[in-house]
Structures are given as C-alpha cells and as structure tokens.
Inverse folding.
C-alpha cells in the first residue's frame, strides 16, 4: 500500500513545496497521510485515493492564488530595488534608457515602414484574386506593363474562370472648367465601372456600383472637389473639359490609403477617351493597364491558358506576344517594368535594407545595455553577496536581474512608443506618406511589440544576469574585487562589434550620396545649364511659331526648339525597328522622340556623322530620322547615314537616316544609354526649350514667362530649368540616402552614448590610479592618452572589421548602376575618421574630467 | 480592529475547543462536525496560516511519530489576541441578537 500512496501524495507534497507560504509543509503532508490511511482502512483504497484526488483538485485554486500573491510581492520588491538603483545612478540610467529608447523607437519606425511596404494593395477586398495583365513581346525577354485596350474584355469573353476585368488608361491633362475656375488636373484615368467593382477604393459620395456607367460621368477626389466646388455638393455638378465635353460628377473618392500602387485624382470612362478621338478598340496599341479578377481556385490558368491568349485570337500570327499574369500585391515591387509617375513603385531591396538597419540599431542599443550593466557589476557585488548570504539561490538572482532588465526595457519601450506617437506626423512627412494610415492597433502588432520588448529585455539581460549571479559572496565580502580580465575583453569585443555596425552604416550612407552626386554631375552628351523648358498645352499649340519668334527677339535667348517629350521624361514612343539586310530572327526595339529644328543646337549636342534637321531639305519634314550612337552601333551597318530604315510608327515606316548624334543621357544614369530615334513632327510638340546666355538674370527669365503667358490663353505658364528635372530622376535614391543617413546618425549617437557611459565608468574605476600617476609626475596629456587608448583601439579594430564587409556590400549595390562612382579609399578614410571622432568626443570628456581631478581628493579615502 | 469572518470564528473556536489536541486532522474533523461540511484541505490550511499571520493563533511542533512516516505534527493554539478577537465577535453577536425573541423563526415555513 505504501507504494501506491507514494505517487499521489508526492504530487501534493510537490504542490505544497511550491508554495512556501505553508511553512509547515511536512506536517501537512503528514496530516494527509493520516487521514488517507484512516479512510483506506474504513472504506477501502479506492475511496481513499479518490478522496485524495478530490482534495488536491479543490485545493488548487488556493495554491495558485497564494503563488500569485507571493510572486507579486517579490515582483514589487524587485521593482522597488530596480527603481532605487536607477535613481541612485542617474547618469548611467539616463544613458542606458536613452540609448535603449532611441534604439527601440527607430526599430518601431522601421518596422512600420516595412509593414507599409509589404502591405501594398492589400486593403482591397479582392486583393488575392486580382491580377494585372502583362505582355512579353515575341522574341524578347522584356515584359511590358502596358497592354492593349481590348484585353480586359476579350479575356473575360474567352475564359469563364475570369470573373471580372477592367482597364485603365492615362487621362492626358486637359483644360477643366467649372464656372469661372479653370484647372489642369494631372492624375486622371479613363476606366470603367468594373474598376470600382473590382477594387475597393473608397467612394464617399455617390453610388460606387453605378458611378461610371454613364460615358460622361466623372468621379473626383475629395481634394479636387474642394478645389472646384468649395463647400458645395459636388455630385450632380458639371465640369467642362477641353471646352467641348460636359462631364457630370457622379461620385467622390475618399482618402486612398498611401499603400496603393495607383494614385488617382479622378476617373472618367473609356467611352470618353473614344470621344476624344483615341481609337482604343484594337490590338495595335499598348497604352493601357488591364486587370482581371480570377475566380478563387482558378489561378492555375495563369500558367495553362493565359499565356497563349494571342494564339487564340490570332491563330495565324507568327509574332504573337505571350501574356503574363502579375498578382496585384506584387505590383509595388516591380521595378523591371517601366511605369508612369502615377504608379507607386519601390525596389524590394528597400525592405531588406530597412530590416538590416532596424536590426543593427537594436543590436547596438542592446550592446550598450549589456556593457553598461556588466561594467557596473562591481558596484553591485555587495548587494549580491548579501542576498546570497541571506538565502538567495542563484536562480533567484538570475530572475531578479532578468526582471530588472525587462523592467528597464519595458520602461524604455513605453517612452519610445510615446516618442513614436508624438513624432509620427513628422515621420510621415519624412517618408512621404509611405507609412499606411491604418496602423498599430491590431493584435498582431501589439503582440509583436510585447514580444520585442521581452526579447530585447531577455537578450540584454542574459549576460549581466548570469554574470552578476555568479559572484561569490565570500570573495566579495572579503574585499578582493573582481578583476575580470575576461570581462573586459568581452566588453571591448562588444564595443568593436557595435562600432563596426555603425561604420558599415556610415559607409553605406556615404556611398549612396557619392553615387547620387555622380549621377547628377556626370550627365554627358548635352548641356543642362542655362536650358529652360515650358509646357505647350494643346489648346495653344498652334501658336508655337509665334512664341518661338517672340522669344528669339530677346538678346539673351540663344536658341529655341521644341520636342514631344523631355530627355528626362524618356521618350515618346517605343517600337520596333527594321532595315534592309536585317537578320530575320532579330528583334530590335528603339525609343524615340519628335523634335523641332534647332534641337541639337539648343542642347549643344554633337552630330558626329551626317547632319541635323534643316529647313533646306524639304524631305526632312517627313522622311528623315536621326539616330543616336547606340542605335547605330546596335544596327551594326557601317556608315548607316544615307541608308533607309523602318520604324514601327505611322509616318516613320520608311525613313532615311540623315545623321548620328553622340549618345546623351535621356534617362537616369542608373541605366545604360539605349537606342534612340529622333524625327521631325511639329504637330506633336509639347515642350518648348530655350537656351539662354550664361548668367542671365532672373528678371530676364521672368520676361520669358510673360511671353508664354501672352499666348497661353489665360493659363499661367512659366519656365523651368532642365537641370532640376534631371535631378528629380534621383528622388528615389535621395530618399534612400536621406533615410539611411538619418538612421546612421542615430546609430552613431547610440554607439557614442554607450561609449560615453563605459568611458565614464572606467574613469571612475581608475580614479585612484590616476591620482597616483599624477602625483608621480604624469602630465595631463599622458593621462588622457592612457584612458582613451583602449577605446580608440577598439574603434580602429571596428573599422578594420567593417571595411571589407562594407566594400563587398557597396560594390554589390553599385553593380546595379550602369554608370557608377568609384569606391575610393577616401570614403573609407572618411568613415574611419568619423567613427574615431565620435569615439574621441565620447571618451575625451570623461578622460579630461578624470585626468584633471585633484589627486589629493581621490587619494583621500585610502 | 477588524471583525472576524464567520469561517475564522468557527475555526478559532474549534481550535480552542480541542485544547491541546488541535492539529490539522482533528481540527478538520471537529470543523466538519460543527458545520456539517467537509472542508477542503487546502482551504483549511490556508485559513489556518492566515490566522497565524494575523496573530490569532500560534503553532507548536509536536513529536514525530512513526505512523506519519517520521513527520511531526503541528499543533495550533489560540493566542491572547485571538481570544480578544473572539470576545469582540461574541459581543457583536450578543448585541445584535439582543432581545430578539425566538418566535421570529416561527414564520419560517416548514
């Protein structure tokens, strides 16, 4: 019977032991046994066991409550001690907390950004089943985002798996008028009712299920409504477009979340586009974005059926493109396809970079924490010794120190959350609204946040906890302080690691800025200085020649020309090019722009073979084309000037190459220069370009503005600098640069902070030593050097470690740019210098203070 | 000073009644007999400890016995403070029950 008793009784004994509250544990266990035996004797073993089991079960609540009360009491005690400690060492506490807080705030910000980036387009209800249709031209590996206007409908007709489909086309800016207000709105699209059905854009006024049924309807943004109608009710009002068409406002769009790849100012119909004279219903254009919605579970047709669509429609075609479906949520990161500025795209590498930075900063902050705590461990040796002597087990102490670090971390994180909330508006500005509007308040984020606090607290607390709890009370109370060779090395190693991360960040920042500067300053092949441009809107385009003459009258105007597109905006058309003797299987694509006479003169471009367009040759007006060097190179015919080629655009199907222009950058320097064709076509001029003399005063430029205003039918016009537009190409990189430099600054700050704390502590430890040295004759300079030496070496080591890694990473990044800057030794030297400088600042203040202490005072207590 | 709860009062009186023989098992038996309910072990010991903490009861270790596997019993005794608390409790009862006739219970339906 005794054996059978052992097991159940053991549970209870174990339970009782857990609750130290019951001091008379054994007596209670004995009482149990007594009753147990009694019942067993009277009513049998089974009854006894069930009685026992029942008692344990019903006693559980009591035990649990006792345990919680005890833990809370213990927790309160630790809390009190932790706070007391913090308060007693205000200096270190402030350093610790501020470092951790800044680190956590950064971490949170970056996390928000990452979430924002990854969450693009997920707010649509049907985001899982919406795809964009892309096409891959025959024989090419390129993928095109813009496709023909007929795809949406014919795809839906041919594949029952497609539940719905829609299309978008750019609304080319036209004059819009309400009463006496005139606007030229930019971000408009032609689309269909299906667009509002498929996507979940917020429609706050009007009926979203019917707003675009009427061909002359328009749905406008809230902002636009306010501009046009003020506080009047927008729905039902009429807007006059292009002096010809009356559109009725049928709906108002609410705030579109910033994590949408589409920016929309207003929506009109495709039918309206047709009334503008554009023929959309054919397979020859590629200007529209088509989206389809697949029935759930039918996504496999993206592999099996969709690619062959063209073969279905044109079974006899021999150069049919293939179609590719792109999930809606992938669109945001798609940098391989060219998009227009109203589509929000970012490089996926941004997410990786952001994650890395976030982790770096958090690690740096944690290292600070660990270092400071372990450094000051000597001060707490007494407390620990006393606790151990009074009965604390090592486990208790570990728990205590973990608790302390978690309390500190929790405290820092609360402050950091407050900081984040306060600074969010500025942060949104800084990141241009890439933080989604709806954030934080969902369970996953809160859970994630608490998890981060715990992990940070645990990680930072592990080493100090284990270290501190291992102090031997005997040694401590006897007075032999822990010298800790090993610990000093560990601390230094952590500092090296910390600073090498910071140096990496500095290197990254500098390289990014170097690259940006390189791209801005190495535009070749054309003049950007003193070149201005202005927009010729279609309603006064026929005044162009008068404008040109008027402008040329000014003495400071050297040359005037025009083009259908600006070099910076790329090109006007992209199509195929063929020529006599071309390899049958070869496909060559070429981009092009329409220009006016005097184009090359205005930009100071070199015609290296043949000639520019000239009024002396009537054939130039419709039968000539000029290619750039790259085009000529790719065609590969020697002496192509004088030969005829065919470009796949009406009007250019049979033209003579009359000249070759030296390659000039008409896109970002990130890409190689591509083949370019230039042709005359005065009817398509959209931009007027003026070259002025160097150092033309601003007043003269204003004069040019007023010339434009004379002809521009009451719409204000002005001239802009081409150089500014070129610089705008690099907004993306500048954004990254600003971003990284901000966080690098913070990381350096945190590292410096940590070093400050450590240095002051070290100085404190060595006050006696310093006192003695001074008495024995050391100079101030020698002592400062002595104190700083160790840390400087750490920083130098950090650089040594970081430079190779930095070199590899930066080279890798730069490879993505066709035109790149050199990774010079000066960059690395700069980074090294900056890190040494920061370290020096941090350390020197303490060193100087310590070195100038009065030895009489420091040696007094010997 | 706070009043005793009913449970505390019954427990204290039980301990007092048992005089020198008030330990876990006997207290439980007597308590169960008085209240007609089998009090749970955990609850009882918890309440006993609480009484000790409040100072109403004091513990004494007894001799270890073979039957209990070599473990000693712990005896409980009411302290002077405990007696004072009991006195207050009784005074409260008395003053509240004063001059209430037994006939008030006739109205209870059988």
């Amino acid at each position: 019977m005794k054996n059978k008793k052992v097991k159940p009784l053991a549970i209870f004994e174990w339970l009782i032991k857990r609750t130290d509250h019951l001091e008379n544990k054994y007596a209670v266990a004995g009482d149990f046994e007594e009753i147990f035996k009694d019942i067993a004797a009277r009513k049998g073993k089974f009854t006894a066991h069930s009685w026992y089991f029942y008692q344990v079960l019903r006693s559980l609540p009591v035990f649990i409550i006792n345990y919680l009360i005890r833990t809370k009491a213990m927790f309160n005690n630790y809390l009190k001690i932790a706070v007391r400690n913090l308060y007693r060492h205000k200096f270190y506490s402030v350093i610790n907390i501020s470092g951790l807080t800044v680190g956590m705030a950064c971490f949170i910000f970056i996390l928000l950004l990452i979430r924002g980036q990854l969450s693009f387009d997920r707010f649509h209800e049907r985001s899982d089943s919406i795809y964009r249709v892309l096409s891959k031209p025959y024989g090419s590996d390129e993928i095109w985002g813009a496709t023909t206007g007929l795809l949406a409908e014919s795809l839906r007709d041919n594949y029952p798996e497609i539940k719905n489909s829609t299309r978008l086309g750019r609304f080319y800016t036209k004059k819009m008028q309400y009463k006496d207000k005139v606007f030229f709105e930019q971000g408009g699209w032609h689309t269909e009712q299906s667009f509002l059905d498929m996507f979940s854009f917020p429609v706050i006024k009007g009926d979203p299920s019917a707003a675009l049924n009427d061909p002359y309807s328009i749905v406008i943004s809230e902002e636009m409504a306010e501009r046009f109608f003020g506080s009047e009710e927008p729905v039902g009002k009429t807007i006059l477009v292009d002096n010809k068409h009356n559109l009725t406002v049928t709906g108002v769009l609410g705030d579109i979340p910033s994590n949408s790849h589409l920016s929309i100012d207003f929506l009109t119909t495709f039918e309206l586009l047709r009334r503008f004279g554009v023929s959309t219903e054919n397979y020859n254009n590629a200007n529209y974005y088509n989206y389809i919605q697949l029935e759930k579970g039918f996504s496999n047709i993206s592999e099996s059926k969709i690619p062959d669509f063209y073969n279905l429609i044109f079974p006899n075609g021999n150069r049919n493109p293939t179609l590719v479906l792109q999930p809606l949520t992938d669109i945001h990161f798609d940098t391989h396809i060219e998009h227009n500025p109203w589509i929000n795209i970012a490089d996926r590498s941004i997410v990786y970079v952001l994650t890395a930075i976030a982790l770096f900063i958090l690690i740096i902050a944690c290292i600070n924490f660990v270092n400071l705590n372990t450094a000051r461990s000597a001060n707490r040796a007494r407390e620990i010794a006393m606790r151990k002597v009074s009965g604390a087990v090592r486990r208790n102490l570990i728990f205590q120190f973990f608790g302390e670090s978690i309390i500190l971390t929790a405290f820092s994180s609360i402050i950091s959350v407050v900081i984040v909330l306060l600074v969010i508006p500025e942060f949104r500005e800084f990141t241009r609204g890439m933080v989604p509007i709806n954030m934080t308040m969902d369970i996953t984020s809160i859970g994630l946040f608490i998890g981060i606090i715990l992990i940070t607290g645990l990680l930072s607390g592990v080493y100090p906890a284990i270290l501190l709890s291992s102090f031997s009370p005997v040694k401590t109370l006897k007075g032999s302080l822990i010298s800790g060779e090993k610990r000093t090395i560990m601390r230094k190693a952590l500092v090296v690691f910390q600073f090498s991360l910071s140096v990496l960040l500095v290197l990254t920042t500098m390289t990014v800025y170097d690259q940006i500067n390189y791209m801005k300053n190495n535009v070749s092949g054309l003049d950007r200085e003193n070149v201005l441009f202005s927009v010729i809107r279609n309603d006064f385009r026929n005044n162009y020649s008068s404008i040109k003459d008027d402008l040329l009258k000014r003495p400071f105007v050297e040359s005037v020309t025009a083009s259908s597109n600006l070099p910076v905006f790329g090109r006007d058309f992209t199509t195929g090019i063929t020529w006599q003797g071309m390899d049958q299987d070869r496909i060559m694509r070429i981009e092009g722009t329409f220009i006016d006479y005097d184009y090359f003169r205005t930009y100071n471009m070199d015609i290296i073979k043949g000639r520019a367009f000239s009024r002396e040759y009537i054939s130039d007006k419709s039968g000539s084309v000029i290619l750039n060097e790259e085009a000529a190179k790719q065609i590969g015919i020697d002496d192509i000037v004088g030969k005829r080629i065919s470009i796949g655009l009406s009007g250019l199907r049979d033209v003579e190459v009359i000249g070759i222009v030296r390659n000039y950058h008409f896109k970002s320097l990130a890409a190689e220069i591509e083949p370019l064709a230039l042709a005359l076509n005065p009817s398509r001029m959209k931009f007027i370009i003026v070259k002025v003399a160097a150092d033309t005063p601003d007043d003269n430029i204003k004069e040019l503005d007023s010339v434009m205003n004379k002809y521009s039918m009451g719409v204000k016009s002005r001239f802009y600098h081409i150089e500014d537009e070129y610089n705008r190409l690099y907004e993306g990189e500048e954004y990254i640069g600003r971003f990284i430099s901000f966080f690098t600054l913070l990381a350096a700050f945190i590292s410096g902070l940590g070093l400050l704390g450590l240095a002051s502590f070290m100085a404190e430890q060595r006050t006696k030593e310093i006192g003695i040295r001074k008495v024995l004759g050391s100079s101030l300079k020698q002592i400062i050097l002595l104190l700083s030496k160790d840390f400087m070496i750490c920083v130098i080591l950090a650089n040594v470690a970081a430079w190779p890694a930095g070199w590899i990473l930066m080279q890798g990044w730069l490879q993505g740019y066709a035109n790149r800057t050199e990774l010079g030794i000066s960059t690395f030297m700069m980074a090294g210098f900056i890190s040494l400088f920061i370290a020096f600042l941090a350390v020197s203040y303490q060193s100087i203070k310590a070195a100038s202490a009065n030895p009489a005072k420091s040696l007094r207590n010997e | 000073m706070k009043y005793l709860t009913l449970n505390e009062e019954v427990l204290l009186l039980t301990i007092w009644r048992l005089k020198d023989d008030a330990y876990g098992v006997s207290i439980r038996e007597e308590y169960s007999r008085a209240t007609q309910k089998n009090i749970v072990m955990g609850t009882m010991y918890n309440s006993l400890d609480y009484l000790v903490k409040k100072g109403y009861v004091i513990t004494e270790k007894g001799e270890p016995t073979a039957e209990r596997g070599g473990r000693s019993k712990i005896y409980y005794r009411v302290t002077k403070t405990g007696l004072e608390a009991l006195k207050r409790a009784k005074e409260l009862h008395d003053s509240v029950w004063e001059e209430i006739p037994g006939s008030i219970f006739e109205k209870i339906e059988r």
User: Anything to note?
Assistant: The longest helix of chain B spans residues 80-97. Chain B touches chain A through 20 residues (CB under 8 Å). The longest strand of chain B covers residues 57-64.
